[in-house]
Amino acid sequence: MNDQATMPNWIHGTLMHAPRLETVEVVENALIEVGGDGEIRSVMAPASPDYDARLRQAAASGAFVNLSNDQYLLPGFVDLHIHAPQWPQMGKALDLPLHEWLLEYTFPLEASYRDVAFAERAYRTLVEALLANGTTTAVYFATVHLEASLLLAQICLEKGQRGLVGKVVMDDPEQCPDYYRDASTDDALRDTERFVEAVRALPGNTAATVRPVVTPRFIPSCTDAALEGLGAIAHDNDCHIQTHVSESDWEHGFVIERTGRTDTDALDRFGLLTRHSVLAHSNFITDTDMGTIARAGAGIAHCPLSNIYFANAAFPLRAALDKGLHVGLGTDISGGASPSVLDTCRHAIASSRALEDGTDPAAPADTRGRPGSRVGFNTAFWLATAGGGEALDLKVGKFEPGYRFDAIMIEANRPDSNLVTWADTDTGDDVLQKIVNNAVRQDIRKVWVEGRLVVDKDAS
Question: Cα torsion at 432, 436, 440, 444 (round to 10°)?
């Protein structure tokens, strides 16, 4: 954790969060007490008993943050799917099909992380950029390289980000290039076990702010023996799991041809579908798959922007939520060309509207789309915060006692900002709608993780 971080015990101002799906709460003049361990002790509104006395106590404490009328406190964002090594290529080659994109651009770049100096430069700037964009919890795919993957975990800990990091497994010589894969199945499994142990033993990681994640890249890149072994490692070590599921026509069809089952069914049989699994994309999952995922309690990382480029379909988000699945958002750097979860909120809303309304103007309006598919700003905001926390089974993403104080402070009406509010016309949740639709990186002025200030753009 950053030695320069401070621990505010009290924060006073307007808070906005979505404690439940479809439910947004805006509390003016809220008073939040944060324990020295980063846990929220209390959240008081002005009508709460003893509010005035507690506010006087907080103001006199010497550890008091008082927000102005233009400043708003939101939960930190949760990004469920990031390819950390792809940061240097973000925004490039998005015109290619997925398989070509991997072979021509992505795998050569990821192979370069055998150079730890290169990894340090890329990972350090990535974590800094994500924190500056308000991402307090990040779920990372690293590479097959043990040393560089561990370095990413160390940087998350140093910078103060809540990170879930996975050393990627790719051991199938028929599907992975010679220059970029695990040397053998045994090496892949042994390095995964070493990685899990090393992350948990990192100095300063006693609160498990950074966690290891068992990470088969996806079924096409892994042998059955590796998938079975990874399932056993995850079970024996009580680890999170992450992988790609039914992302594109190619990947979805490949798995069915190879295994005779969908991705979801195959992962379940390998022991890789649990309450702590994060399934990226999932665009082509069936109703049966949804039922399997719901019973396991696994989470889905919805990546709407990268789906536009590579999935050939829109994820049926509304249907998944209606079936009770745990869903959050993923930027999918670099398949998604933005590091901002706020941008991802906007893409999720637009994707749902495109699915509901359809996109082909030559088709009759009543046959053009899938009715009942849209989501609004409130759902997108929930996905970015509490929904992501629920998907990970972590107490983050809302302001309630017992939750971790991971938060961002957004300031409106700055001279260089598109986030403009009007006190006489913006009421209720109007400001939050404007934040979801208009706020950008420079509007996020402070970021806290575990109660510690890790980004302060206004510091001299």
Answer: 40
